Amino acid sequence: MLARTLLRVPSRAIARQSLGKSTRASSTAAGVDAASSPFYLTLTASLATAAAAGSAAWYYHLYGQEAFAMTPAEEGLHPTQYPWVHQRFNKTFDHAALRRGFQVYREVCASCHSLTRVPWRSFVGVMHTVDEMKAMAEENEYDTEPNDQGEIEKRPGKLSDYIPAPYKNDEAARASNGGALPPDLSLIIKGRHGGCNYVFNLLTGYPDEAPAGAAVAEGMNFNPYFPGTGIAMGRVLFDGVVEYEDGTPATTSQMAKDVTEFLNWAAEPEMDDRKKMGVKAIALLTGLFAISVWVKRYKWAPIKSRKVVYSPPIGPRR
Amino acid sequence: MPISNAIYTSLFRKNAVYLTAIFASAFAFEMSFDTASNKIWDSWNAGRQWKDIKPRYLVKDEEEDDD
């Protein structure tokens, strides 16, 4: 007890002292107080600040920075943005371009790339007539159901069949392409970052020769837009590779644009109807919203414009 | 209140008439809205849709049939 009181008294005295000092410092001169502050206090504060700032910087250095697992070359060049008309909210696919793009696919891409999720029937009424598609399907052979002897025979294709793949399986595709698997193109626009822009840039982005210093492996081609820049597919679209039936000049960029739009259709065959439904829904919902606003104002008008008055009861006076 | 009276006697008085009016107007609105919006859509996409390019290929087929 005694020790405590003894201890307490000096601490109070110090508190009083410091209080008096601080009031005096603020009321008289700051210079006097700064000069009188002990060196060890300044040193401790400086060290604490330095330690805090240093540990924060060290922590940021360790964990705060963005981590890039790949070099820019491995990411690939970002594709140039193009103003695709069919990607506007109120535009359908250009079906003449789809028809040209399908021609490019059949004559150029189909030798390596499959389109296995698209049946022949889906072209009818989109870019071809029924008779054209039936003829095109019949050019291909498909397995029949097993007959009475259990033999599987061949039959010409029907509209309900899917487009046959150029290779029997992925291993055969790899074997014929130097170990590289040509991806299925049914959903390629949805399956690649950049979508249409990426595919168009990839198809048209082959330089005549690899830039100086670029390492291109044996059997590979240089394409800056392909992640890693080394792509097994060579440039396939050259001016005049395809002869369009509607007389459109078959330049490289025209063919690339058409086939890109066609692949976008393959990935999103429902796009035309979806956008039309969306426009209709927005129109209807706008009208309904306007009506609901009117109804709200109609119902609330008497409530908002009323005046509540308190009239005290008139009683007998006391 | 002659107009509201007329509406009341012609529409809301009998439930059968009221219901029929609702259904009929729903059908009428659906048809007119669809027709109008399809027309606007087709004008936005003139020359882009299959029905715009279909004649080219149908004519060719008929010529082939004639041969």
Give a structural overview.
The complex is a heterodimer of chains A (318) and B (67). Chain A has helices spanning 2-27, 30-36, 39-64, 72-75, 95-107, 130-138, 170-176, 188-191, 195-204, 252-267, 271-305; strands spanning 141-143, 154-156, 221-222, 230-231. With 318 residues, chain A is mainly alpha-helical. Chain A has a domain at 79-272: Cytochrome Bc1 Complex, Chain D, domain 2. In chain A, the strands form 2 sheets. Chain A has a two-stranded antiparallel ribbon with strand order 1-2. A two-stranded antiparallel ribbon of chain A has the order 3-4. In chain A, α1 (2-27) packs across α2, α5 crosses α10 (252-267) and α9 packs antiparallel against α10 (252-267). The longest helix of chain A is centred in the last third of the chain and has 35 residues, at 271-305. Chain A starts with a helix and ends in a 13-residue tail after the last helix. In chain A, 20% of the residues are buried. The longest helix of chain B is centred in the middle third of the chain and has 30 residues, at 15-44. The model of chain B has no long low-confidence stretch (mean pLDDT 87). Chain B has 67 residues and is an all-alpha fold. Chain B is rod-shaped and about 65 Å long. The chains are: A mainly alpha (318), B mainly alpha (67). The A-B interface holds A 90-96, 99, 125-129, 131-132, 246, 272, 276, 279-280, 283-284 and B 33-34, 37-38, 41, 44-45, 48-50, 52-54, 56-58, 61.
Per DSSP, the total helix count of chain B is: 3
Which structural class fits the helix and strand makeup of chain A?
Answer: mainly alpha
Percentage of β-strand residues of chain A: under 5%
Number of domains in the coordinates of chain B? 1
Task: Give the strand tally of chain A.
Answer: 4
Give the uncertain stretches of chain B in residue-range form.
none
Mean pLDDT metric of chain B: 87
CATH superfamily of the domain at 79-272 in chain A: Cytochrome c-like domain
GO biological process, one term (chain B): mitochondrial electron transport, ubiquinol to cytochrome c
Keywords (chain B): Electron transport, Membrane, Mitochondrion, Mitochondrion inner membrane, Respiratory chain, Transmembrane, Transmembrane helix, Transport
InterPro entries (chain B): QCR9 (IPR008027), QCR9_sf (IPR036656)
Protein name (chain B): Complex III subunit 9
